[in-house]
């Protein structure tokens, strides 16, 4: 590839033989007026994923950079190794079990970042596809803000990886602690958003596939809460001396996550974990008293009006989910 790469597309894959063709094809069918590269991190799959990737690399040697790890590195190390091979001005992500459905996606997002230097990233809506039962939903509904600050992302990360494009190198090299994060997406989006807001595009341009083999789907409720808490703790340490406002917001959401963990441990009668998590809360918030923490842990009954509203919402969601099974899954053309 002679011309300078504009966009690096990062694709992490492990045991995705059933999905990887859709992922790669959706990248290779992108129509752009600039060069892009596809950087694949193949993490020593035990199925035919690596062979499929090699075939595509032979077909597109000028575009595809393939790394086949000699041993399974795990998600974080595979991300770090692949991220460091990217050379573009911007980065987009399409993991090996997801795919794009708009052949102009890269062009649309790169054009936006070119003309809006104040933003660090842009992202769009995705079609959530639940592989096991064939149901579908669309993420980032009407409530989604157009302009998302770092505080918005810390409060509730709205960015699905398969939808994002961001500027590479805003914060320099990946921090030394990055290998300790348990899910790279939240950390990378916070680090980027420190340098500029993230803009939301109300277009559905990708499919986010959820299936029983995916890392997030396989995680228990407890593990998902722990992932959130651990990632925030690492970021708190990162920003402690660097940015008080960001550190304070991270501490607030870390504390809320710990409270939810305490409530979970109380529900299963694990008093040892309750006490341990309470100590984490007190350590993160030196001004808190034990009594204050105990008060925060109380589960307050929602008003009747809110309970009725929630039940109606859940019923509508079930109906919509059943109807969605009849709608064909879109593919890139």
From TrEMBL:
Which Pfam families does the annotation name? Answer: Glycos_transf_2
Fetch the SUPFAM superfamilies from UniProt: Nucleotide-diphospho-sugar transferases (SSF53448)
Gene3D superfamilies reported in the protein's UniProt record? Spore Coat Polysaccharide Biosynthesis Protein SpsA, Chain A
Whether DNA-binding counts among this entry's keywords is: no
One GO molecular function term?
A: hexosyltransferase activity
- Domain Glycosyltransferase 2-like positions: 8-133
Q: Which domain of life is it from?
A: Bacteria
Tell me yes or no: is Transferase among this UniProt entry's keywords. Answer: yes
Keywords carried by this UniProt record: Transferase
The name this protein carries in UniProt is Glycosyl transferase family 2
> Organism, per UniProt?
Bacteroides luti
